[in-house]
Amino acid sequence: MHLILGRLDLGAKGIWYPISLVVILILFILFMKKRQLTWRQIYATFGVVCAVTWIVDMIVSIYFDAYRFGTNHSIGLADLLALSFIPSCLSIIYLNFRTKSNKWRMLVGFTVLSLAIELIATRVQYFQLKYWKLYYSLVMYLIIYGCLLPLHLHVLKSGV
Question: I need a labelling partner for 88 at 20 to 30 A (CA). Which of 82, 110, 128, 137 fits?
């Protein structure tokens, strides 16, 4: 039992931050007005973004040791929640409210929001940057929100 509880990394600095953010984002999605996405599209977006996030973050954080979550190099409870829910929820909210008329405002807004979430995670000492720089994240967020998520939505809506 001690081994299991130790692996959850419940003593990590700033663990309250990702857990609180996950709860807020999930509640927002549950109660937001569904404008662009159906529940089926939300389900598909969650799964795709969650899987891609896990693959990319495991390569970058574990293999390249570019950044770390929590207090050690293993995956704790907050890491599991943060990696699974924060990018997926942000993607769902972004796609639900993005339209042709507000696409640039949404791109800038969600890029800034994502950078702010990452910066706060470093400030509360939950997320430690080693070889990763925030401007790498800036480029990644612009690609994700500007290209990949709109492409994902196009595939979802066209049924390809």
Answer: 128
CA distance 6 to 10: 7
Taking each helix axis as running N to C, give the angle between helix 103-123 and helix 134-143, from 0 to 180 degrees, rounded to the nearest 10. 150
pLDDT tens track for 143-153: 999 999 999 99
Residue 135, token pair as written in the block: 């401007």
Separation in Å, CA 102 to CA 7, 85, 105, 124, 150: 43, 25, 5, 32, 13
Round the average pLDDT of the chain to a whole number and report it: 89
Secondary structure (DSSP) of 50-90: HHHHHHHHIIIIIIS--EEESSSSS--HHHHHHHHHHHHHH
Instruction: Give the global pTM.
Output: 0.91
